Amino acid sequence: MTRFRIEKDSMGELEVPSDALYGAQTQRAIDNFPVSGQRLPAAFVRALLLAKRAAAEANSQLEQIPTAMGEAICHCVDELLDGDFMEHFPVDVFQTGSGTSSNMNANEVLATLASRRYGQPVSPNDHINFGQSSNDVIPSSIHISAALALAEDLLPALEHLVTVTREKATQVHRFVKTGRTHLMDAMPVRMSQSLNAWADQIEHNIRQLQHLQPSLQSLAQGGTAVGTGINAHPDFAVRFSQALSTDTGLTFTPAANFFTHIGSQDIAVALSGQLKTTAVSIMKIANDLRWMNSGPLAGLGEIELEALQPGSSIMPGKVNPVIPEAAAMVAAQVIGNDTTLTVAGQSGNFELNVMLPLVAKNLLESLTLLSNVSRLLADKAIATFTVREDKLNEALARNPILVTALNPIIGYLKAAEIAKLAYKEGRPIIEVAEEHTDLGREELERLLDPATLTEGNPG
């Protein structure tokens, strides 16, 4: 049987579970928002706690709260982050658009713990939240959490994907395959050329994400309620960013304009847009792998992905490209998250955006999904596939499109005539070309050599 205690806030009294670290405002949010059962991501709560730690450090240095109280708050943050802290943060994602409920959740939990350690009452509003507002804390926590996820997780994961793909490209360089445009046979390419193109895609995404890092690491903290900085010490924003930078290892700075960072979420929208672009690149790579692996008899069958699990509950022996499929689903989710986040970004009405918890949820979900699936794609699909050289050579030998190399010698129309005849009769292009041109076999072998054609003009 659950036991309760009575807590009080500015709206009156209500029952709170006796063992809960949070207080009245958190309980009101639990009661008011039984919407999804989804909490804000742990990465966001971690960032929120780090923000409270940096605020306590700054306020202590500026003599806005007692030094011992600031130390107690910092100790309690560290203690929470070292444990299973999410049990103390039950507020639903779909709550007040400013995230005030989550801010007060953190304030109340830390006030309870800090009071015990400090030996005197620590107020959630007057001490933990001193010089702050939900309106600058939550936007700052979005930036902090996303910046940490980007620097610690996604960028290393994408760099790993590039490294593995480049290594695989080197390993498969000797293999030549039929190129395809419109999913139809085209001029030959080296398998390394295809893989290096994937790596270039991901490297471009890395550069674009890195370009966003300085903006992401600029913070609304110090703007308080509407951007004017009411109730915050004039040096609070700078001291806060300095403390946070020391605690995290990333360089955070106060926003050049607090009004912009509080009234809009344009930087989060820009990051989400780049995550969408990254997802599009992941989708391309995943689909290429699926097509190349298709078969093994009735498809292209150019590669064989590592067999990871049975592919069917009814068809024995079937194996499916499960990692590329998972990657494609991640890409679809990230693209959807960006659409939602774009709508949320439009909800900056006057001095405050009022879809902040939704921005936090979708941004961090996209960062997490892309981080995890990039490593899977690298390690369990690209690094481990094997090449079916027999299938590559079979398709190359019968590819009439090789006749393109003869265009400068016999002309486009004559080459098209030969290609169509080779298609119709199902014969190798070199045989048909030998019969219908004045070119000798030895010269045709040189001109139509697939490996040579991957380098451009055979000359």
Show the helix and strand layout.
Elements: E1 4-9, E2 12-17, H1 24-32, H2 42-61, H3 67-81, H4 100-118, H5 124-128, H6 134-171, E3 176-181, E4 184-190, H7 191-216, E5 218-219, H8 236-248, E6 253-254, H9 258-263, H10 266-293, E7 303-304, H11 322-345, E8 348-349, E9 352-353, H12 356-382, E10 386-387, H13 389-397, H14 407-410, H15 412-425, H16 429-436, H17 441-447, H18 450-453
Parallel strand pairs: 5-6
Antiparallel strand pairs: 1-2, 3-4, 7-10, 8-9
Helix pairs in contact: 1-4, 2-3, 2-4, 2-6, 2-8, 3-4, 4-6, 6-7, 6-12, 7-10, 10-11, 10-12, 11-12, 15-16
Keywords for this structure?
mainly alpha, 60% helix, 459 residues, Fumarase C, Chain B, domain 1, Ribonucleotide Reductase Protein R1, domain 1, 18 helices, Fumarase C, Chain A, domain 2, 3 domains, two-stranded antiparallel ribbon, elongated
Task: Explain this structure.
With 459 residues, the protein is mainly alpha-helical. Helix content is 60%, strand content 8%. It is built from 18 helices and 10 strands. It has helices spanning 24-32, 42-61, 67-81, 100-118, 124-128, 134-171, 191-216, 236-248, 258-263, 266-293, 322-345, 356-382, 389-397, 407-410, 412-425, 429-436, 441-447, 450-453, and strands at residues 4-9, 12-17, 176-181, 184-190, 218-219, 253-254, 303-304, 348-349, 352-353, 386-387. The strands form 5 sheets. A two-stranded antiparallel sheet has the order 1-2. It has a two-stranded antiparallel sheet with strand order 3-4. Strands 5-6 form a two-stranded parallel sheet. A hairpin with a 2-residue loop joins β3 (176-181) and β4 (184-190). The longest helix is centred in the first third of the chain and has 38 residues, at 134-171. The radius of gyration is 30 Å and the shape is elongated.
